[in-house]
Amino acid sequence: MSRRLRHILQALALLFIGAFLFSTGPSVQAQSASTPRPSSASIRTPDFDESVQWYQDKLGFRLLGSQSLVPGRRAVMERSGFLLEINEADHILPSEPDTTATVQVTKAPVVSVLVPDVDKEIERLRKAGVEVLQNPEDELDGRFRTAQIRDNGRHRIELREPIDENGFNAMGR
């Protein structure tokens, strides 16, 4: 088995494990995590190469593997244990209200990434030319400081900085 194929299979196994953990609810989440969080997400884009490069350059994801399939290409990327699957959509379908197969600009975040300092991350991304949709602000319950950006054109990305009841950031800020 080639090294590349082995990496792809390992990434897919991690993606399935992450999907299982997320679907079974918070009781299966890591015991050290006080707040359950998703461990994987999947997006579709017609700009496959551009999207893979964007997530590497702008958000620091690393490419675990990619493959070409009959309907398009797929890449599995990782950042701090969070897996992101990027699937190539060969075209954008006409928008229909209840259709999930269309690829269009999202109105709600599709990916939520934990960061140690939302304010610094937004400042860095803004300088890199990333579109900021929501400036950093504390959530009403005070557990997270959040901001939103748009990836290379279609998907909203939420940046989340965890804060406990004493104002402590578990990620090190």
TrEMBL record:
A Pfam entry, by short name: Glyoxalase
UniProt cross-references to SUPFAM superfamilies, sorted A to Z: Glyoxalase/Bleomycin resistance protein/Dihydroxybiphenyl dioxygenase
Keyword Chaperone: no
Ranges where the VOC domain occurs: 37-162
Signal peptide annotation: 1-30
Alphabetical UniProt keywords: Signal
Coiled-coil residue windows: none
Signal in keyword set: yes
Protein name (record): VOC family protein
Species this protein is from: Microvirga tunisiensis
